[in-house]
Predict the 3D structure of the following.
Amino acid sequence: MAELGNPKNTIEVLQKYNFHFAKKFGQNFLIDTHVLDKIVRAAEITKEDYVLEIGPGIGTLTQYLCESAKHVFAVEIDDNLIPILQDTLSAYDNVTVIHNDVLKVDMNELVQTKCEGKPVKIVANLPYYITTPILMGLFEAHVPMKSVTVMVQKEVAERMQAGPGSKDYGALSLAVQFYADPYIVANVPPNCFMPRPNVGSAVIRLTLHDEPPIVVKDEKLMFDLIRASFNQRRKTLVNGLHNAGGFGFNKEELAKNLVSIGLSENVRGETLTLAQFAALADALKA
Ligand code: SAM
């Protein structure tokens, strides 16, 4: 099978199988070899590596990954792409296509049973409509990972790197900070995809920390606090957390805990650093 990363060969495959793009699955296939090269180079894949690809499409990036990796697991939801992948990947014996919704796959089990329990490298041109649930799901499930090299919407890449006070700062920024070091590899214009998305894109590499940059007693509580505070951006943190319910503290107790870690009781959630969210979680836990 010829290399797919160009418009001519991609169209040929689409026509051969009478494939129609499904908008609901966020299908924008890569048709630019320079971008494909950049993704694979940034992911630094070797023949020792197990790679997990989310959404292989017609197998364009998958072919590159198979060339460099020990084994590739590619999770694809769309029934119509499965026979195409069987064809476009037929030359490789180091790939397993998993026909499923990525949000339903038990990645920890996959890594333990199929990848010798070794940390995997995630590489993908992600379906943009579920970027955050995919990434948060991988992080929060503590799937053993070395790095995550993914194409995302440009604004989302910027959000991942944002700090307190910026309008882009949110739960995703804090999760990325806690788990990884982000690095934007390249900005990618719409004409590198078929069909063209109506947003700009960027490749971002997240290198997982060996140890988190801060210590927190109850990570889940910290992320519950973070999510609740960003869900109600214009409220003070005390009101936001109180309205969210579920934490079991009244406003006075929340205010007292904020003051105990050196913050004003009128502070807004979006001004807190990761270390301050961790301190608040530890104070409430105590
Ligand atoms: N990797 C291909 C490429 O770069 O040309 C396709 C990338 S396209 C942006 C996203 C892919 O994710 C599509 O193949 C789509 O069908 C698939 N997809 C969408 N939602 C999915 C889900 N929940 N689970 C697994 N795959 C999904």
Summary: The chain has two domains: 7-208, 219-285. DSSP finds twelve helices and nine strands in the chain.
